[in-house]
Amino acid sequence: MAVASSAHSTIFSKTSLFHHINGFKRFSFCLPFSSSAAASISSKKKWRQPVASSELELGGIKIAKDDVVRDDPTNNVPDTIFSKMGMQLHRRNNHPLGILKNGIYEYFDSNYPNLFDKFDDLCPIVSVKQNFDDVLVPAGHVSRSYNDTYYVDSKTVLRCHTSAHQAELLRRGHTHFLVTGDVYRRDSIDSTHYPVFHQMEGVRVFTPDNWEASGLDPTSYAAEDLKKSLEGLARHLFGAVEMRWIDAYFPFTNPSYELEIYFKEKWMEVLGCGVMEQEILKSNGRSDSVAWAFGLGLERLAMVLFDIPDIRLFWTNDERFTSQFSEGQMGVKFKPFSKYPPCYKDMSFWINESFTENNLCEVVRGIAGDLVEEVSLIDNFTNKKGLTSHCYRIAYRSMERSLTDEEINDLQWNVREQVQKKLNVVLR
Ligand code: DAH
Fold first, then answer.
1. E strand or H helix at 257
2. Buried-exposed string 258-288: b where 16+ CB fall within 10 A, e elsewhere
3. Separation of 34 CA from ligand 1 center, angstroms?
C-alpha cells in the first residue's frame, strides 16, 4: 500500500523550508472543531467529537483549558487541539503508537542495557526559547510563524518537535535519553497529516574517554556511532532492508543526515539526525562532550509498519480499529473495514494577501473535524486586475460510517460561511 511516504517528515531541513515558502508544504496540520463553528451544528449531530473536559493532567501537571486556549490575538490554539492534549496515544500499550514506542525502547534496552533514560510525559506546553532558541532555530525561520506553530501566547507554544526538550534534559544531567511525546503543527489536510502527531527524540552524549582510544576525532566518532545505532534500529523495526544516508540540514546538528530505507519498492525517510551542535552542549554544561541526536515521527513509521492507510485512524475509538492491536504485537497488519464513499465539494474564492492554506484548513477542520479527509488546491489563477482566485476541493469521508447528503451539505454550507467570515476572502 502506498501510504505515509510523506507523513510528517522533518520540518527543519532546507527542503522543508523550500516547501513552506511555496505554500505547498507537506509536513504538519490543522485542527478539528473550533468552538464557534462547531456550536452551530453540534446540537443536532450526535457524531460530533467529544467536548474537551475543562482540565487534564499530564505528567503530574494540571492543565486547564484556559492555560492553552485564550481569546487573545497572541493565541491561535482552538478548543479541539486542547481536547487532543489529554489523549496520550503514545502511552497506550495496545495502540499502534504505544506498540511502536515500546518496540523502539526494546531495541535500545537490549543493545544498551540500562543506559537510556526514557521520558514520555513531558508537558507539551513549552517556551519559545525551549522550542526554538535552545536548539538554534534562526530568528526568522518559517517554523516560528503563527501560520505554522500553535502559540499559547507570544512566549509560549505547543511544542512542534520533541527536540524542544534536548537542552533542559542535558542541563538536568541526562546523557542518554529518549523523549516521546505529542507534537503540534498547523498544516494542510490529507491522509498523512494531522495537527497533532507524535515524535521520539534520542540523544547520546560522549566524553573524551569514549573517543580518545578510537583514533577518530570526536565528531567522526559520534557520527559513526550514530549511524551504527540507527541502522540497528531500522533493522529491528523493518527487518533486513536496504538503507542509505542522505546529507541533510538541521539547525541543531552538524553534520546532519536523514536515514532512508528501501521499503515496498520505494525509498522512505525514516528519521532525521546528526551530531549535536557544539553550542547546545556548551550552553547546557557539557562543553567537554560531543553528542548525537535523532528525531523520528511515530505515525509515519506506524502507518507503514501496521499498514494504516489514514492518519485519522490513530484517533478513532472505533473498535474495528482498536481491537486489531495488542501489546507487543509489532507490525500486525491492519485489516481495513469497509471504506465509505467520499464526497467532494469544491469552493472558489478570491484570496487576499494574508490568505494561507493552513488557515483555510484550520477553519475546515474546525467545522468538519475528522470527517474531512483532504483539502486540495485544484485551480489557481490571477486575472488581469491582479486578483488571484483559488479553487479548493474538499473530500469528506468518515472512516466509521456513510455520511448523508444532508450533513455534508450542512458542513459545506458552514465551511463557506466561516471561510468567508474568518479569512476575509470573497467567494465566487
Ligand atoms: N526536530 C526535527 C523535526 O521535527 C527532527 C530531528 C532532526 C531531530 C534531527 C533531531 C535531529 O534530534 O538531530 O523536524
1. strand 253-263
2. bbbbebeeeebbbbbbbbbbbebbebbebee
3. 30
The answer for residues whose C-beta is within 8 angstroms of residue 333's C-beta and 6 or more apart is 306, 307
- 3-state SS, residue 407: helix
Contacts of residue 409, Cβ cutoff 8 Å, sequence gap at least 6? none
Query: For residues 204 and 292, what is the distance between their CA atoms, to the nearest angstrom?
Result: 5
Go through 372-394 and write b for each residue having 16 or more CB atoms within 10 A of its CB, e for each that does not.
bbbbeeeeeeeeeeeeebbebeb
In angstroms, the CA 375 to CA 327 distance is 34
The identity of residue 49, as a single letter, is Q
For residue range 14-69, what is the model confidence (pLDDT) as tens digits? Answer: 444 333 222 223 222 222 222 222 222 223 333 334 445 678 888 788 899 999 99
The ligand 1 atom nearest the CA atom of 160? 4
Closest-CA residue, ligand 1 atom 8, reads: 295
Report the first-to-last Cα separation within the chain, whole angstroms: 38
Distance CA 242, CA 265 (A): 11
How remote is the CA of residue 280 from the centroid of ligand 1, in Å?
14
Q: What is the reported pTM? A: 0.89
User: Strand runs (DSSP E) across 82-195, as ranges?
Assistant: 117-119, 125-127, 151-153, 156-158, 176-184
